[in-house]
Amino acid sequence: MNDNAIISTCERRLAAAAGAQVRLVLRLCEERCLAALEPYEFERALLCLADNVREAMPGGGILTIMTTIEAGDAGSNVIVRMQDSGPGFSDEAFQHMFEPFFSTKDDARNHGLSVFTVYAVVRQCGGTVTCRNALGGGASIALALPRAGVPQSVAKTAPPAAPAPRRESATVLIVEDDQRVRAVLKEALSVKGFGVLEAGHGVAALQVLEQHPARVDVILTDVVMPEMNGQELGARVLAMRPDMKIIYMSGFSDNQDLRTEVVEQKSLFIQKPFTPQQLVQKLREVLAG
Length: 289
Fold this sequence. Notes:
alpha/beta; 2 domains; Heat Shock Protein 90; Rossmann fold; about 290 residues; single chain
């Protein structure tokens, strides 16, 4: 994938995502920036970041997208840097920006997925994402993408590594109608070693269970979904498999019907937004119980 070509091609879409009050400036290097990332995924990541810029600078400003090629420890990387002239990152944002569902907004409908979505996309190709407040003001996010077509150097000999973090062996069926949320949850669990199956609603979840009857250890399901909501799914599953472990997730904890049903089914509940650590801990609790 040629990053410069993709950026140039979607320049209008990026400008629209950033908003009419934001001026988009491209500073692309002359050398071809071939990166090991699918064009669709790269464009999706850029649009997510441009949308963040629009929210960060409602009064307008400048968004600059720059590309360079830099040498790294394991070879050369294509660097795509997006820098705005806004207020910069807050201390809270720095601490939590790579967590699923983190948002600086109080609106429960705002999932806060943009930066984590970018992180997940870039990580899949072996890249990294760094964020900082730029000198002179504004925020800067840099995507370091392994350069395609260039042999990566052999890793240097290193001292014995520290013990590997705990790896999970259970398989989780994620039932969530928002594809972005599913992708975030899948990434958060996969990096911890969980096996992950997916379904976009309750009916699809039942089909997955039929296809993999002995594989699923726990179901992580949203409550509000089309066709069949989480509570209906839980009742159907427990009628077939009374020993199935179920975790409900929702942004609304004041649903009395949900709380009653969770107690009756001896299931667990986790409230959005939550961090990957909180989700893993909840899964460990229900699997151990």
